[in-house]
């Protein structure tokens, strides 16, 4: 069975410097297993949770298929609200629909370009994949408008519930005197997200009529340019806001 996210921690390290240690000391035999039995994602909706469990092991019933088909709607169906979150299968679909949605927003577009730093190259062009910088959570060009829906793409502060996947709406952009964006001000859907950070900026709450205005700044993210990481790998850094458009997401 494939791991749900990323590599297993007890798998052979990608860095060859640690292969000898891995061969002598198996992490697998040093872990205690914990069986998670409480379903938090589907909550009290046992019917849906049971359906997903049967889907996972390919044992769906006729009733399961009938239930799912009863939930199928056309994209412009009246049951679907204007602010509904759509989940797509490919980055290409997501990027196109997100951009179309942003184009319909009448507010001025603000573009924030990532800053790239290389160990030895002054003029460095980073490797990009679907607009993101290699295997980082940051995009090369971030296009936003006031009122745009956004998602955090990095665990900014997990203690303050500012984690990857948090969704919200752009309230404003706070800029430096030179016009560069210092903060993207976001009102997150859940009032618990960024609660402590919001307390540090009481002037923003007054400016935006009591809205939970949470300022998000750029982060610095280092990454390897080598296919296999070693102690001699060339590295680069990208500095950008850990945000992306969030009208539509990829599964």
Explain this structure.
It is a single chain. This protein is of the alpha+beta class and 251 residues long. It has a domain at 86-250. Helices cover 20% and strands 25% of the residues. The protein contains 6 helices and 14 strands. A 5-stranded antiparallel beta sheet has the order 10-9-8-7-13. It has a 3-stranded antiparallel beta sheet with strand order 3-12-11, with no helix packed on it. Strands 1-14 form a two-stranded parallel sheet. Strand 4 and strand 5 (132-133) form a beta hairpin. The radius of gyration is 22 Å and the shape is globular. The mean pLDDT is 86.
Uncertain runs: none
Global geometry: globular
Q: Care to count the β-strands?
A: 14
Global mean pLDDT: 86
Radius of gyration: 22 Å
Task: Kindly estimate the percentage of residues that lie in beta strands according to DSSP.
Answer: 15-25%
Give the spatial strand order of the biggest sheet. Answer: 10-9-8-7-13
Distance between the termini: 19 Å
What is the helix tally? 6
Identify the notable features of this structure and list them briefly.
alpha+beta; 6 helices; 251 residues
Compile the SSE list and pairings:
Layout (H helix, E strand, L loop, with lengths): L18 H6 L21 H11 L5 H9 L15 E3 L2 H14 L5 E4 L1 E4 L9 E2 L2 E2 L7 E4 L4 E4 L14 E9 L5 E8 L6 H5 L2 H6 L5 E4 L2 E6 L10 E6 L2 E3 L2 E3 L1
Parallel strand pairs: 1-14
Antiparallel strand pairs: 2-6, 3-12, 4-5, 7-8, 7-13, 8-9, 9-10, 11-12
């Amino acid at each position: 069975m494939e791991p749900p996210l990323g590599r297993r921690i007890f798998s052979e390290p990608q860095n060859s410097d640690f292969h000898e240690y891995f061969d002598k000391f198996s992490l697998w035999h040093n872990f205690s297993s914990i069986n998670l039995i409480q379903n938090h994602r589907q909550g009290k909706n046992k019917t849906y949770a049971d359906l997903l469990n049967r889907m996972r092991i390919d044992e769906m019933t006729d009733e399961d298929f009938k239930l799912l088909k009863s939930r199928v709607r056309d994209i412009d169906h009246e049951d679907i609200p204007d602010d509904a979150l759509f989940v797509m299968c490919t980055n290409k679909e997501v990027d196109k629909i997100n951009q179309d949605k942003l184009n319909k927003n009448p507010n001025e577009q603000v573009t924030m370009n990532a800053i790239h730093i290389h160990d030895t190259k002054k003029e460095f062009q980073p490797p990009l994949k679907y607009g993101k910088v290699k295997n980082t959570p940051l995009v090369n060009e971030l296009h936003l408008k006031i009122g745009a829906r956004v998602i955090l793409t990095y665990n900014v502060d997990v203690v303050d519930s500012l984690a990857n996947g948090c969704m919200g709406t752009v309230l404003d952009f706070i800029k430096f005197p030179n016009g560069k964006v210092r903060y993207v001000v976001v009102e997150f859907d859940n009032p618990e997200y960024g609660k402590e950070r919001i307390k540090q900026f009481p002037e923003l709450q007054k400016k935006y009529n009591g809205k939970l205005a949470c300022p998000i700044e750029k982060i610095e993210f280092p990454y390897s340019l080598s296919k296999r990481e070693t102690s001699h790998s060339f590295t680069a850094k990208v500095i950008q806001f850990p945000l992306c458009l969030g009208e539509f997401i990829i599964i």
